[in-house]
C-alpha cells in the first residue's frame, strides 16, 4: 500500500514539475494556459454528481493543502446537510500539490474519500493562486455551469453567514447578477513597488501605476453566466500572480464585467475577543489563530442569531 501511495506521490510531483515549466512558458506568452487531465478520484467526483441537479449556490473554495482542519470546519458548517438542503448548495475545494509527500498523500486520500476536492497538478504556493482560480473556473464551467445559478468564491479562512447570503441572493436582479461581481470592491489601488512587501510587483510584471477595480478574495459572488466570460478572458489577458487583481480585476475588465460594492457585508479585522459575530457581516475573516480557535463558537453564534440548530455530526462532505 505504501509503495503504491509513494509511487503516485512521486509521479504527481513530476507532473507538478512539468507544470512549472509550462507556467514559465505561459508567463512569456503573457496569458494562462489551462491543460490538465485528472484521475476521477482527484476531480471532485461527489460534487460532479451534485451538479447533475439544479443548485442555487456552489461554494468555490480556495484551500491550502495543509489546511485539513479548515476544510473540515467548512464541511461541518457550509457543507452540512441541513444547510445545503435549505440553500440548495454544494461545496467544492480547489487545491494544488503539496511539496511535502506525506501531506500530498493525505490530500489525495481526503479527495478520494470525500469527493469534494479538485487537486490540480501544480504546486500549492501563494504565487500559483491565479492558476488555482482560472483552473477552478474551467472546472466549474465544464461540470456545473448549466446547473448552478451562483458561485460564491471564498478562502478557506472565511466564516460565512449563510442566512444573510441567502437573503441577499434572493434580492439580486438578473440584470445585476449577470453583468457584475458582487464583492468588497477595491478601486484605484496603486501597485506595490516596495521590494520588501509580500505584494511587490515589478514594472515588468505590471507596468501600470494603478490596478483596475478588483474584489477582495475573502468572498465574492458570481453569476454562473460570468464564468465563461472570465475564463475566455484569461486566454488573452496579461498574466499577473496577484490573484485577486488578476481574477476579478484584469479578467473582469477584459470581459467587460462590472463590480457591485457590498463593503458593508464584510468583517476583515474582527476583534479576537469579541463574543459575537457582527450581525450584518456576510463574510468574516478568521485569519488569526485566536479566531480560528473560536470558529465553531462563532458559527454557533450565527445559528443562534437566526434561530437555527445544526448537529455537527451530519456534515455532507460536499
TrEMBL record:
InterPro entries: Glyco_trans_31. Keywords: Glycosyltransferase, Golgi apparatus, Membrane, Signal-anchor, Transferase, Transmembrane, Transmembrane helix. Pfam families: Galactosyl_T. GO terms for cellular component: Golgi membrane. The keyword Glycosyltransferase applies. One of its GO terms (molecular function) is hexosyltransferase activity. It is found in: Golgi apparatus membrane. Its EC number is 2.4.1.-. Its main location: Golgi. GO terms for biological process: protein O-linked glycosylation. PANTHER family: BETA-1,3-N-ACETYLGLUCOSAMINYLTRANSFERASE, HEXOSYLTRANSFERASE. Belongs to the glycosyltransferase 31 family. This is Hexosyltransferase. It comes from Ixodes scapularis. The gene is 8042610.
